[in-house]
Amino acid sequence: MLRLGLALLLVPGLVLVAPTSAPSSLAAPAPVSAPPQSSVPASAAVGRAGWVWPVQGPPAFARGYEAPATRYGAGHRGIDLEVGVGGEVRAPADGTVAFVGQVAGRPVVALEHDGGYRSSLEPVSSSLAVGDRVERAQPIGVVVDGGHCAGCLHFGVRLHGEYLDPRALIVGIPRAVLLPA
Predict the structure, then answer these.
(1) Does residue 32 surpass a pLDDT of 70?
(2) How far apart are CA 109 and CA 115, in angstroms?
(3) Where would I find the beta strands (DSSP E) of 123-178?
(4) Which of 4, 11, 100, 181 has its CA 20 to 30 A from that of 88?
(5) How many C-beta neighbours within 10 Å does residue 56 have?
(6) Torsion of CA 158, 161, 162, 167, to 10 degrees
(7) What's CA 67's distance to the chain center, in Å?
(8) For residue 70, what pLDDT band results from cuts at 50, 70 and 90?
């Protein structure tokens, strides 16, 4: 007997969904080799409208998101964008400044967004203060020395405290492609 279903293939920045038609005794196709990706909760779709890259133009990636195996396990809870020291950093979405200060010796700016989202950007020097309102794409600071990647901007996003891949929220990134069986 044949069963119809969907195979989910994860590729950095892209989710491929392929319909399958195979006997139930056969194993599903192996996913494309890629760094572990977050599973974005269905409620994350609400936040997709209006998020943009926190840098000018399409960014160059230094390192992608790597979900930890456990809540406190090793991973890379965000993405690193090659910007260069002095590069302008922008608000990825409308929000309120929640934190401006040092974390582990690095300058960090954290923004609260509608729907329970919180973005963090580092190492960023900013003149903003906690409580300031920011609009999507508004300049909020510049990249400075001191990050874990020279000249890179680390961009992290949490939804209700759980980290997710920021690329899942950016407008204009392809989400899913249906492939023929």
Answers:
(1) no
(2) 19
(3) 124-125, 133-134, 139-143, 152-159, 162-164, 176-178
(4) 11
(5) 13
(6) -10
(7) 11
(8) confident
Is residue 11 over pLDDT 50?
A: no
How far is the first Cα of the chain from the last one, in angstroms, to the nearest whole number? 17
DSSP 51: B
DSSP H or E segment with residue 15: strand 14-23
Per DSSP, 31 falls in state P
Contact 35, 63 (CB under 8 A): no
Q: Which of 129, 55, 135, 131 is nearest to 94 (CA)?
A: 135
Question: Is it the case that residue 40 has pLDDT exceeding 80?
Answer: no
Reported as type and span, the H/E element at residue 8 is: strand 2-11
Token reading at 102: 């040092």
Cis amide linkage into residue 123, ω under 30° from 0: yes
**CA angle 165-62-142, nearest 5°?**
85
CB 90 within 8 Å of CB 52: yes
CB-based contacts of 173, cutoff 8 Å, min separation 6: 13, 14, 167
d(CA 19, CA 44): 24
As a whole number, the mean pLDDT across the chain is 75
H/E run at residue 47: helix 45-48
Q: Which residue in the block uniquely carries the two structure tokens 């007997």?
A: 1
